[in-house]
Structures are given as C-alpha cells and as structure tokens.
Specification:
The complex is a heterodimer of chains A (509) and B (400). Chain A is built from 21 helices and 12 strands. By secondary structure, chain A is of the alpha/beta class. In chain A, the strands form 2 sheets. In chain A, strands 1-2-3-4-6-5-7-8-9-10 form a 10-stranded mixed beta sheet, with helices on both faces. Chain B has 400 residues and is mostly helical. In chain B, helix 8 packs across helix 13 and helix 10 packs across helix 11. The longest helix of chain B is centred in the N-terminal third of the chain and has 31 residues. The mean pLDDT of chain B is 84. Classes of the chains: A alpha/beta (509), B mainly alpha (400).
Chain lengths: 509, 400
C-alpha cells in the first residue's frame, strides 16, 4: 500500500510542473466576523488565524471559490497582495507557509490566497487521482480517460481566462480597489494574463520563476539539462565535490543501462525494502530533475550518482524519498484541462524532439502530458500576443531553475517597460523565501519605482555538497576519508569501485 | 414632592457653592508647581513607553550577535554556515574564551582538535559554547546561534539520511501544526497591559498636590477655619474641593491619553504583531470613563488628607494610597486572573478593564461602563457625605 502511494508521488513529481511549496491542508471553523461572510480558519504552515471566505463567482451563484485572507496587522493601509500558486492546479492555501517569510509584508498589506475553480478547496477536480495514482503511464492515462468521460463539459470550461475573470470577481467582492500580485511558477502566467486583461485593477507584479505568456514552459527538457550543467559546474568548482569525478557521465550511463532487475530491486526510502513497483529509468531521471528544483536536494546528487554507479542505490533512493512528502499535489482534472488547452496544443512533436535531444531527461517529463492530452481532448486556447504594459514588475529567477530558467524572463517580456530582475545564483525553482529576497519584495512593493540594491543576493549560496555518508565535509578536502569511503563501497562491484577510487584520487574532472 | 424639594435644594446648594468652587478652581489651577507636576507625569509615561518600545525593537532588529569560533580552521564549514546578518562570526585560531567574552564577543564557540575526524566517523564530536549568562544579552545571543546551528545540523542530518536511502519523514512520525487563537489586538493587550494602570496612576499623581494643599494645606495656613464659618454646608465645601482637585487629575489623564494616542503611530507595534486599533470613539470613551474615577480619587485623597496629622503626614499617606491600588491592578493583570463581568462594577478594576479593551480596539460593553461608572459616582457621593460629617467635628481643626 505504502509502495503504491509513493510511486504515485513519483509520477506526480513528474506531472507537477510548476509547483511552489509542499502541499498543505486548510480547515475552517465557523466564527463571527465582519465583511462578506468570513469565518476564522487556519492553514497548515501558518500558526495564526486567517479569514476564510466563500465568494460566488458564477452568475447563478452556485460556484463559489475558497479565499483565504491573512489580514494586515496594521489594518492594511496599502494595496493587498494576492498570491497565485503554481501548477496549473496547485491550491492557493498551499502557499500559507510563505506567510512566514512574508511576515513583514503582511504588516501593512492583506495577503489573499484564492483557490481557483477545480483546485484546492474550490471543488477540486482531482479525477479520483489523489493518493492512489498509478505509477505507470499507461494505467495513469487509463484513469484519466475514464475521468474525462465522466466529467461532461467540465474539462472544456476550466482555463486561465476563467481563473483570471474569477480573480477579478473576488477582488471586487473583497472591495479592493487595486491589488498587487505575487505569482509563483505557473502562477506567474496567471498573473501576466491578469495584467493583460485587467490592467486597471493592478498595481504591481512580483513574479518568481517566470512562465511568460509566449513561453512553452512544458518543453522543460533543455531547461532541466541547463540546471544540471550548472550543478556540474558548481560541483567542479568545489574541491571536495570535484573529487567525485565525472558523475554526469556516470548518470548518463546509469540511465542508459538501467535494467529491469535494477528497477525491481531499487530500495524503498520509506520501508527500507525493495520497491513494490519497479523504478524505471525515466522515473529515475524524473527524480533527478525534481531534485534540481531545490538546491538542498541538488547538492546531494553528485554523491548519490557516484554511489549508484558503484551499485549503492541507497543515496539515490534517499533523493526520491525527499519528495515522498508531496502527497496529492495536483487535481489532475484541472491540471490537464489547462495544460492541454493552453500549452500542449501549441507544442509540436518536432519541438518536443528538439527540446529533448541531448538531455538527461529526454521526453520523460513531457510524455505524461503528451499521452494524457490524447485522452483529454479540449480545443486549443491560444493566447493573444501580449500588449505593452507599464506596471512595475519584479522578476525573480534562480540561475539553476530546471523549469523556468532566467532566460525566459529575459527574452520573453520585452513588452513590459518597468521591470527589474533579481537573479539568485545557484537558485532553483522559487526563491521568494530565501535570504534577503522577502525584504527586497517588500521594498519593491513599497517603492516600485526605485531600483533595488541587489547586493545582498550574493549572500545566498548553494548549500554544501554531500561529501560522504557523514554529510557535508567540514574541511574543504579530506582525501583520506574519500578513499576510505571508496573502499567501503567496493562491495557492489569490485572493478567499478576501484575505478571510482582512482577517479577520486585523480581529483579534477 | 419631598424628592422634588431635595433635588431643588441640591441645585440651589450647587448655585450657592459657585463662588466657593470658583475660588477652589482658581487656587488649584494657579498653583504652578502642582500643575507642572500633573502635566509632567502625564506626558512623561507615554513618552517613556514609546521610547522604550522603539528602543527595544531597534535593539532587537539591529543587534548583531558577535561570535568567536576558536579552532575554526578545524571545521571551516561551521563558521561559514553560521555567518548571517544577525550573527557576526570571527574565526580565530587561538584564544581564551574568558578573555574573549570579557571583550567584544557575546559568545565563544570552541571546535575541538579532532572535530572533523570524529564527525566523519560518526563519533559525535564536541562543540563547546562559552557564555556569560550574567550578561543580559546572552540569552538572545544563544538563541541566535542555536537558530543557525540548528539549521546546519538539520542539513547534515538530512544528508546523512538521504545517503542511507531514508526518507526524511521517517524521523518525523507526525507533524505538529500550531494554531494560535490570539488576535493581533489580544496580543496588543499583553504589551499594552501596563497602560491602564499607568493612566490611573496619572490620575492619582495629578490630583495629589492639590488635594493635600486644599485640605491639610489650608488647615495649616489657617484658612480652613474662615471657610467653615461661611454659611455653607459641609457637602458644598467638600464638593467644591473635590471638583477642583478632580479637574486637575482628569486633565492629567486626558493629556496622557492624548499623548499616548499621538505617539502610538510612532511605536513599532506591528513588530510585535500588534494591531493599532484605537478608535476615535474609543479615545473619547477612555476620557469619559476616567471622569468618575477622577472624582472618586479626588474626594478620597481630600478625606485622607483631612484626617492626617499634618501636611507632611498627608503627603506620605497619599503617596501610599496612590501606589497601593496601582500595584494591585498590575498584579491582577500579570497574574492573568480571569475576572467575572461583574467585577467591572468595582471602581479601578472596572476602569482598568475598559481602558484595556478600548486601547486595543476591543468591544467594551457600554452598559457595563455605565453601570460601573454609576457605582463609582455613588461612592463619590457617599464619600462627600462622609467628608461633610467630618468637617463638623471640632477635632478636625485642632489636628495640627
């Protein structure tokens, strides 16, 4: 049972494109308060109480969205900040954890989190693919097809236009004259579309992990490859990590030669036994790609790969285990409705092939969507070419982001004339909570016209690489320990072990 | 009929009292020193409160903990990872912890000789943390270090688990989510708890000098006797004096409220997660609920001063009178004793509760405020009658 759940996770981490934070639940308990029928409620990850609203968005009033508001401590003299989650489909209530780093911002501004239709607590369209998601693509797609058949018109109605219109309805219902938007990941797309369609309602934009309107973000193979190359570079600049030698080549070999037996005997990070469902090569590549989202996980990759190439799969299994917590991330009905209509319909087979060429992930990421959209027929919803906009925009990128690399923000946003771009060196996907970034966001929102002093970003560094079973090296280089470790690990394959030991001693890659 | 008559008698009495009241007010307000004292304290405590919070927050946010790491070169990663905006890390090869603590450093961390080796062998090497716990900042400094060190430790543990293929949630069989039911205004009540007590204390202090002067003072100056031979009833004399004294006390507390409300926007209350929610209606209500209390304090002070042996004795007694109730209120507040609603009928406690609520923008029942104020006023009337009877006693004048 647990094995099944975990393998679900692996597929979801492949499918969850542009996720912001870990998944959280929110429960409401009734309480009296002023305004449009609010109740006191809580969301996991934030200990203080929130105000929860259900705001009707359809003409007949039957469809209502769940809206969470963290009221400004100082009564909210400034425009509220709406947080738009990733996905497509991540629940806004999942962002409650972000309130901790944004605490200062919350003093003068209400922070509003809206669950879009079909997401989170707004009647999640999850196709029954919650904890019980099958690991194999075939069975996943089968379940998806059944769900589509049973859902009537619903897949046709869910799209970004509706989400943005609903957001505008919520803004009016809450009585906010102008708002600022923070978008994370896919949320940046929603924010940029809101800017196109409701420019009057918008004050400023903060976009973290930018998915511009014109960018085909699902073509993620080369972005993931660049992030891995940057990790390689950082590793070779580190005297200890350089000792792992050409772990990148080892990864390629591992993925290329991954056998059925290896897949079946892969250790399960939760139970300690072997996995119930085999871990195929594309899943392994998916785990590596997912690890690149978070620099802390990425720092463990060189060691894990080096170990795996010697036959010790425990560290690689440990990396898979890092994401075992991302349970039930996306309501798949919502994700596929939006992804198929707005992204997959504009991506050709040639583009997929050229994006996948020469990357470690290949089509391993996009395949779920390609296959899934075949059973999820929705008409293409192309975006119009974006019109020039003059709102102040703050862009935030991690230089090693495997899904929304900084070049997207640099190349595709020429129509915005008041933008600043913060680049976190070595940063992964979503950097709003790191180092001085929360302070810079606050500064930007308070004085959007003043260029930010970005010097403090240099203090944000990659976490130290894993050096051995003991964790990071306390001393820059401990050659004895490395060779001792190499000896320890020879049990798997004698010759491979010696080879690696030579590499380690050899030092430079 | 009878009641009509008595009401008219009171009005006539009050009219008769007018010249006396004018004289008392004139004397009270002409006493520069008493006035200055009232004004000074009224402005002093809000200023001190504002200055205090501003200073505290500034210190909290700007204070950088200075940490010396002895033997840092044995584990450079530690010093490197501890460095943060709030933690200034100095790597030293050698040093005496005692001397370093006596110097510029808040904390000294010593890395043992074989640290890195034992760390790699999983033999839990020691880090020695030297603190001076008699230093007021040492607790905060330790917390700052713990926070960084804890994060580093967590990272090491995460990597060790991963290296063995263990998912991190195996170490967290469940996740505790805290749900805080306090509201920004209830948090405000905690920090602003002393304010009602101080406002009430302002009343006492602003009344004090005038109360002593217009009773024991007049007696010593032998000007009380001529007043008593006037064709005025005892209650009229006491009422006139009470009104004069209370006017000063009330002015003092109004000034304090005004200063407080003006200074509140300057106080970094949001840093404490406190909402600034005092409303205009709240400020007006605060002023109004203090009026009956001002009368009560004034009349009690006058009575006490009249009973005292001398001017000096009166001053001493009144000083004690002013401290006792304020201390009582603060103890009540600090002990977090939950009082039933009916306690609001008691003077002082009632006013304290209302002020507290009004200050943080909580809803305070107007009915309880009216009822409690009525009780206070009844006590004022009773005290005036007691005072009137006392004035008839011969012994009063010969007390000195």
């Amino acid at each position: 049972m647990s094995g099944r759940k975990r393998s679900a996770t692996r597929l979801l981490t492949g499918a969850a494109v542009l996720v912001v934070a870990t998944s959280l639940g929110a429960q409401a308990e009734p309480a009296a308060s002023a305004g449009p029928a609010a109740e006191t409620c809580y969301a996991d990850g934030w200990s203080e109480s929130l105000r929860c609203y259900r705001i009707p968005v359809s003409a007949d009033g039957e469809v209502a969205l769940s809206v969470l508001v963290a009221p400004a401590v100082n009564g909210g003299q400034r425009e509220p900040l709406y947080l738009l989650a990733g996905g497509p489909g991540q629940a806004a209530s999942d962002l409650a954890r972000l309130l901790n780093p944004l605490r200062k911002l919350n003093r003068g501004r209400d922070i509003v989190m809206v669950d879009r239709r079909g997401g989170g607590r707004s009647d999640a369209f999850d196709c029954g693919l919650g904890a019980e998601t099958p690991a194999s693509i075939e069975r996943f797609v089968g379940k998806l097809a059944t769900c589509y058949q049973a859902s009537g018109e619903r897949p046709l109605t869910i799209n970004s236009r509706q989400t943005v219109d609903d957001l505008e309805t919520v803004r009016k219902a809450l009585g906010h004259s102008q708002i600022s938007l923070w978008g994370g990941s896919w949320g940046t797309r929603t924010a940029l579309l809101y800017q196109q369609w409701y420019p009057e309602s918008l004050q400023s934009l903060v976009l973290d992990g930018v998915a511009p309107i014109g960018t085909k973000v699902f073509l993620a193979a080369s972005a993931a490859e660049s992030a891995l190359v940057e990790l390689q570079q950082a590793c070779s600049d580190d005297p200890m990590c350089a000792g792992f030698g050409d772990w990148r080549a080892q990864l390629d070999t591992l993925l290329a030669s991954w056998s059925e037996e290896q897949a079946r005997n892969f250790p399960d990070p939760l139970t300690g036994k072997t996995v119930d469902e085999p871990i195929e090569a594309w899943m392994l590549a998916g785990a590596v790609r997912t690890a690149l989202y978070d620099p802390g996980a990425a720092a463990q990759l060189p060691f894990a790969v080096a170990q795996a190439s010697r036959g010790n799969y425990a560290p690689l299994s440990g990396i898979v285990g890092l994401f075992a917590e991302m349970e039930g991330a996306m309501p798949m009905g919502l994700t596929f409705s939006v992804a198929c209509a707005e992204e997959m319909n504009r991506i050709s087979a040639e583009e997929i092939a050229s994006d996948a060429a020469g990357t470690f992930i290949g089509d391993g990421f996009i395949r779920v969507f390609r296959e899934g959209c075949k059973v999820w027929p929705v008409p293409a919803l192309p975006y119009e070419a974006p019109q020039p906009r003059h709102h102040p925009v703050l862009l935030i990128s991690g230089s090693a982001d495997p899904i929304t690399p900084p070049k997207y923000a640099d190349e595709q946003l020429a129509y915005l004339d008041h933008k600043q771009h913060l680049m976190v060196r070595g940063g992964g996907h979503i950097n709003s909570a790191r180092g001085c970034v929360p302070d810079l966001i606050l500064e930007f929102l308070d004085q959007p016209q003043v260029p930010l002093d970005q010097e403090c970003l240099a203090d944000i560094q990659r976490p130290p690489f894993t050096a051995g079973n003991y964790g990071p090296a306390l001393l820059p280089r401990v050659p004895e320990a490395d060779s001792r470790l190499a000896e320890e690990q020879q049990s798997g394959s004698e010759s491979a072990g010696r080879e690696v030991a030579r590499e380690v001693e050899g030092g430079s890659p | 009929m009878n009641r009509m008559w008595s009401a008219r008698a009171v009005i006539v009495g009050l009219q008769q009292m007018a010249p006396l009241l004018r004289k008392e007010l004139l004397e009270a307000w002409r006493d520069r020193r008493a006035l200055l004292m009232a004004v000074c304290f009224s402005l002093m405590f809000p200023a001190a409160l504002a200055g205090g919070t501003i200073f505290m927050v500034k210190k909290q946010s700007e204070d950088v903990t200075r940490l010396a790491v002895i033997g840092a070169e044995r584990a450079p990663l530690i010093a490197e990872q501890l460095r943060s905006p709030g933690l200034d890390v100095e790597a030293l090869a050698e040093g005496s912890p005692r001397a370093l603590l006596a110097g510029d450093y808040d904390l000294v961390l010593e890395v043992t000789d074989d640290f890195a080796e034992r760390y790699q062998d999983f033999r839990a090497p020691r880090l020695y943390l030297y603190v001076n716990s008699s230093d007021t900042g040492s607790g905060r400094a330790q917390r700052a270090l713990q926070e960084r060190l804890g994060a580093l430790q967590q990272m090491v543990v995460a990597q060790r688990l991963s290296a063995r293929g263990v998912a991190p949630q195996l170490l967290a069989p469940w996740r505790l989510e805290t749900r805080d039911v306090s509201t920004p205004s209830s948090r405000g009540a905690l920090i602003l708890a002393t304010v009602p007590g101080l406002l009430i204390m302002t009343l006492f202090i602003a009344c004090l000098a005038t109360a002593v002067d217009s009773s024991a003072g007049e007696r010593e100056r032998l000007s009380l006797e001529p007043l008593l031979v006037q064709p005025l009833a005892g209650w009229q004399i006491i009422t006139a004096k009470t009104l004069a004294v209370a006017s000063l006390g009330w002015l003092g507390s109004l000034l304090a409220i005004g200063a407080l409300v003006l200074l509140m926007p300057l106080m970094p209350l949001a840093e404490f997660g406190i909402q600034q929610a005092t409303t205009v209606a709240g400020v007006v209500a605060m002023g109004l609920v203090l009026l009956p209390l001002a009368l009560l304090v004034a009349v009690l002070q006058i009575l006490l001063a009249l009973r005292s042996q001398s001017f000096k004795d009166a001053q001493t007694q009144l000083s004690i009178l002013q401290i006792a109730p304020v201390v009582l209120l603060m103890v009540l507040d600090m002990a977090q004793i939950k009082l039933a609603d009916s306690w609001q009928l008691l003077p002082l406690i009632g006013q304290q509760q209302w002020l507290k609520g009004l200050l943080v923008g909580d809803w305070v029942s107007p009915l309880w405020m009216l009822a409690g104020s009525a009780v206070t006023l009844v006590l004022v009337v009773m005290a005036i009658l007691v005072g009137a009877r006392a004035l008839q006693r011969e012994s009063l004048l010969s007390a000195s």
